# Entry
Amino acid sequence: MTSPLYIICTIAAQVIAISFSKILKRLDNAWFFFDTLGLASFTITGIQKTLECGYPFWVAIIMGCMTGCAGGLIRDVLLNKTPVLLCKEIYAMASIIGGLLYWFLNDLNVNVAITGVATFLLIVAIRILAVKYHISLPVLKEDE
# Structure
């Protein structure tokens, strides 16, 4: 957290977003795309940081999911929207499945970079395919 890289990336992202705001407004799927990339990135970061602290893998998967989902949750609340996490879309489940893949590959002693990339691609693929093919989690309804 002492690295200036975080603030540099944040400023660069702001400059890009402002520079291309007209294009981004026209793209219906731009928010979805960047949200999906963020979910995958922060899920992996949460898992890696939790493991570095010496916690067991089940804790790392939960922390990865919480880290990945928190950004989208905060964004939606600030935009006064219903959070994607609380809708039917597959969001947290994609993060958890990605965490399970990370655990599996790590258990097989696969290179950390390959594990990270594979996990990233799986989370992105799950989100894109779920939205494209209208796959969602079942909703429990109260009996009337």
Q: What stands out?
A: The longest helix spans residues 30-52.
